[in-house]
Amino acid sequence: MAVIEGGKVLATGAVRSTMKPAGPVKELTGLLLKKAGIPTAESRLAATGVGRKNIPGASQLTDLMAFSKGARFLHPPTRVIVDLGGQGVRLIELDADGIMSNFTTNDKCSTGTGCFLDIMAAALGVDPAYMGTASQNAREPAVINTSCTVFAESEVVTLVAKKRPKEEIVAGLNEMVAKKVVAMIKLAGTKGDLMLAGGVAMNAGVVAAIERELGRKSVLPPEPNMVGAIGAAVSLGASK
Amino acid sequence: MITAGIDLGSTYVKTVVLVDGAVKGFGVSPTGPDHDETARSVLGSALQMACLRQSDIGYIVSTGYGRRVTTLANETISEISANAEGTRFVARTLGVRTILDIGGQDTKAISLDDRLNIETFAMNDKCAAGTGRFIEALAGVLGVGIDDMGPLSLKSQHPLKITSTCTVFARSEVVTLIAEGKPKEDIIAGIHEALAKRLATMARKIGVRKEVFFDGGPARNVGMRQALERELGITLVVPERPQIVTATGAAILAARKLEKAGAR
After folding, report:
1. Exposure string (b/e) for A145-163, b if CB count within 10 Å is 16 or more?
2. What is the pLDDT of residue B263?
3. Which of A206, A190, A187, A186 lies closest to A198 in space, CA to CA?
4. Total domains present in chain A
5. What is the ipTM of this complex?
6. Which residue of B24, B40, B70, B179 could cross-link B50, Cys pair, CB 3.0 to 4.6 Å?
7. pLDDT(A67) > 70
């Protein structure tokens, strides 16, 4: 969730998704508005994402619209947004005016998603947060031969049994994620500024691997998991 | 003439001891961390069944994913060739033109010509969703033994649909279905149908021609067999021991090698 006023992000926050999001969302809204110093009566609410219909009183917009608007707000020259989500990878292309011109989505396969990284963290017996920083210390990335989460999980277990340093395994996994994401980017054949968004973009190792594999820099917003929320707020016309 | 075939699969190691063109012993055991050690112990049980010793074996051919790891074998061969050879041996007179072989980590569809030579083949080793691992992973979530999956699924009145393609997502889906109190047998029937759909798609790529031979560990699962028959709209030829077809093929190739060497 993000609170925006006058083209500025004043407060952001997150709660874990539940089946009934209305309660937690209301609580978080109150908290963030207080933090931003805005009276509730002067605020308006927009919702995006799978559970957007369950938020009473909020205007709704699709995830794709929200990401387009959020990316445009954060970095106007953005032409491609890659949303590295928990259960899928989405690629949104924008034209010069910031209007969505195309999108590709992969939610059939868990490889490269947040879910993938969580499973690997469990297989390695480390905290998910470790996954983001460990690869910096890797001397040589372990080669992961498969492209499937289930098979990679077995490979990781074997590598751990062979006493391969965990940071090298993590580096290998980051490369595996990067290969999949970059293949998707190359397939779209996009040019121009590329923004990485979504929870997985908070993983520095994955971001570095994607940039290496892609051969160019990406735009990384300060809070990659907030791009959609910021876009929802922007859609209300509260900014600019 | 005594030969042996060892099939070092990702999930199980299988061995067959062949004596003058007849299977006299076989062994099957889950693949342990040490492939070579597992192969030795599985060959040991096959030899015991055949009342033979390792020194009696004239030639050993290994096949499968771990075929190069074992030091037992005189020679290695691809599992596609070994499987086709095994199928020719097991079902020579049955007019097999298509083989569907599901393994623990890969699935093969092989088409044979009229002389039972390999014409084309397709293989999936990229994604767990089309392999035996799919059933294994979901059986684990359900807390059902792999051998109980087939019989349980036959009790299903209303098979549920598993909508996720990815094994990982299907795992969460099954957890949700269990939490909703859905009958286990309906979930299991849905799992078999999901895998059958994926196999059928792969088989159609190389063209499904009758008769269709179905082997590999999951072919032991009666629910899986029926789901695949429904999906393809045909009756499958399933050997008595679907798990050892490829190992049998390797043993036959070993016998042929020995024969040639003897003739020379």
Report:
1. ebbbbbbbbbbbeebeeee
2. 66
3. A206
4. 2
5. 0.83
6. B24
7. yes
Q: What is the CATH number of the domain that holds B27?
A: 3.30.420.40
- Cβ contact A72:A94 at 8 Å: yes
B181/B135 Cα distance (integer angstroms): 20
Q: How far is CA B108 from the centre of its chain?
A: 9
3-state secondary structure of B127: coil
pLDDT confidence tier of residue A19, bands split at 50, 70 and 90: confident
- Which single residue is written with the structure tokens 């109980």? B148
Q: A54 and A95: one domain?
A: no
Q: What is the pTM of this model?
A: 0.86
Query: Residues 134..153 of A with a Cβ closer than 8 Å to B: which?
Result: 146-151
Task: List CB contacts (< 8 A) between B105 and chain A.
Answer: 151
Rounded-to-integer distance, Cα A65 and Cα A232, Å: 8
Tens-place pLDDT, residues A148-197: 999 999 999 989 989 999 999 999 999 999 999 999 999 988 789 999 99
The range of the structural domain enclosing residue A54 comes to 1-66+226-240
Q: Is B124 helix (H, G, I), strand (E, B) or coil?
A: strand
d(CA A94, CA A188): 12
Distance CA B51, CA B204 (A): 44
Which residues, listed in sequence order, are joined to residue A12 by a DSSP beta bridge? A2
B61: β partners: B5, B75
- If asked whether residues A202 and A85 sit together in one domain, one would say yes
User: Does the pLDDT value for residue B206 go beyond 80?
Assistant: yes
Size of interface A-B (CB pairs under 8 A): 36
Mean pLDDT value across chain A: 92
With an 8 Å Cβ cutoff, is B105 touching chain A? yes
Same domain, B66 and B131: no
- Report the alpha-carbon distance of residue A54 to residue A218 in Å, rounded: 34
The reply to whether B84 and B126 lie within a common domain is no
pLDDT grade for A21, boundaries at 50, 70 and 90: confident
Interface contact A149-B33, CB threshold 8 A: no
A169 and A121 part of one domain: yes
- B residues 13-52 lying closer than 8 A (beta carbon) to A: 33
Element (H, E) at A214: helix A204-214
Interval B41-67 mean pLDDT:
95
Max CA pair span of chain A: 61
Secondary structure (3-state) at B153: helix
Asked if residue A21 lies in contact with residue A51, where contact means CB atoms within 8 angstroms, the answer is: yes
Are the C-beta atoms of residues A74 and A230 closer than 8 Å to each other? Answer: yes
Residue A71 belongs to some domain of the structure: no
Give CA–CA dist A191/A185, Å, rounded. 9
User: Over 60: is that where the pLDDT of A59 sits?
Assistant: yes
Residue B159 structure tokens: 């098979």
